[in-house]
Amino acid sequence: MSHPIRKKTPNRSEPPKTYSDYKKYKSYLADDFHLSCGYCGIHHMYFGYQKGFHIDHFAPKSRFPELICEYTNLVYTCPVCNIAKHDDWCTDKACTPISNGQGYIDPCCPEYDEVFYRNEYGKICVKTSVNNASVGQYMYNRMKFFLKRHEIFWVIEYFDDTLDKLNTIFSKMHNDSFPYFWEVKNMITKLEKMRQKYRKEQKLLNE
After folding, report:
1. How many degrees, rounded to 5, is the angle at CA 20 between CA 18 and CA 25?
2. Whose C-alpha in 64, 73, 116, 151 is 20 to 30 A from the C-alpha of 93?
């Protein structure tokens, strides 16, 4: 069983204003990237929400300063992916991100979701049978997609989503004489308490 590397594919919109400071685009990027890292898909709540997330320059600003405020070159990203990628670039042209099987796929490109996926345990993997599989492997190594933290955060979100689905299903079980009804209800109640405790502790860590 496999899962998408991200819940939704990001789509850059057209900001209503043009800024000379790229950091002012952060709220627009957060919306366009569905509050998640463009590369690994981790929700920004695990890093302190917007204040803890970074803005990556797909074509590095250190090498292409003319693109420092170009919105189409910005990526809403977690600190882990941004630091790992840093200013790496495999060509001398901003418009050419790939050369000789190495480089980067723009996370807003549909091809990104064709190259990367997660296995049943949340581990990020590269599809070997698709075009640019070698580029995917290059990114996998360079951006340290093998780190366990990418799996752990995904598992937490998977638990969260599964509990929501379980609540929806249980809400339709109106007959309290249904076998195991009260047992299931007690289990869900305990899981909800644990989720609330986790969310509370998470907020304290981010303050």
Report:
1. 60
2. 116
Contact 50, 27 (CB under 8 A): yes
The token pair that represents 116 in the structure block: 């990367």
Q: Quickly state the pLDDT bin for 206 (edges 50, 70, 90).
A: low
Q: Residue for token digits 């998470």?
A: 202
CA atoms within 13 A on the CB side of 176: 3
Over residues 42-94, the pLDDT tens digits come to: 999 889 899 999 999 999 999 999 999 999 999 999 999 999 999 999 999 99
H-type helices in 52-132, by residue range? 79-85, 111-115
Round to whole Å and give the CA distance between 29 and 10: 9
d(CA 57, CA 69): 9
Pick from 105-109, 150-154, 201-205: least confident: 201-205
b/e code 3-26 from CB counts within 10 Å (16+ = b): eebbeebbebeeeeeeeeebeebb
Give how far Cα 55 sits from Cα of 9, 75, 79, 190, Å. 17, 6, 9, 38
